[in-house]
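Re: magnesium ion structure - here you go.
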Amino acid sequence: MKELSLHILDIMQNSIVAGATLVELDLAEDREEDVLTFSITDNGCGMSTEMVETVVNPFTTSRTTRKVGLGIPLLKAAAEQTGGGITLSSKLGEGTVITASFGYSHIDRQPLGNMAETMLGLITSYESVDFVYRHRVDTEEYALDTREMRQMLGEVSFAEPQVMLWLSEFLKENEAALYLVK
Amino acid sequence: MKTLADLEAIRKKTLEQVTLRKDEGGVRVVVGMATCGIAAGARPVMNAFMEEIAKRNLENVTVTQTGCIGMCRLEPIVEIIVPDKEKVTYVKLNPDKVAKIVNEHIVNGNPVAEYTIGAAE
Ligand SMILES: Nc1ncnc2c1ncn2[C@@H]1O[C@H](COP(=O)(O)OP(=O)(O)OP(=O)(O)O)[C@@H](O)[C@H]1O
Ligand SMILES: [Mg+2]
């Protein structure tokens, strides 16, 4: 993956495949402490202890279209090559939390990339899934909760062109504002 | 700066102007977004579809992403499903090919044969 935001998209896609109705993403960039971390929490089907133990190993997966799952092993490799790592905890029937940390200034850390595009596609694609997203850069922070947005929208869908355009601008503006303060 | 209050206005305007899109009856654009698709560049392809459709204000077309479509070497893969027509599968897409597909296939009803899975095999 060229960007961390693509890993994030990929891992959140796992939550959706697992049947989650709520997916929370917490993303924090602490430049002083030289660390970038994110955690993704879902209320999907969860995994057994066995599955959790083996899922970081590319030779185990429960999907049927192809034998090997790549998403989590790729994320793990990306984090470890910057001196960070991942943790995965899950409970069958309850949900899953995956966290990843990266050395912020490490030369092998991929750029975060386009978070606005990652969130836009997810939010507009899954009408029955809610998302909470928090992004912090040092002391600057913004957050969104699609449950609040849906309340404003009533029966109008996120897939409506005007809503899509609004959301795209909303995300771009808020992402950009995080980096304005030095 | 955009605020949530904008959504209230968009809601009103949308409800006045259009008949609400329904789950069935519209054109569906489905982008394969599993690891292999994402790594091959599916996200910008999806974004290009969304922008093109929003820009043209095409009602009753939805763009969504899905898990693996199962043909990793042909990613990014997009399926276009028009009611009462056979599903068309486009392969190895990039954002530059999107405007043509929207124009010729979604608006005018003629699939772009050169980008389809049939042409790739
Ligand atoms: N959030 C989750 N909830 C429940 N199960 C999960 C979750 N994330 C991953 N899994 C399980 O772990 C497996 C491996 O995930 P991974 O992302 O590595 O590969 P994949 O999704 O199977 O395939 P790929 O990501 O390569 O398209 C999944 O098939 C799924 O069974
Ligand atoms: Mg996956």
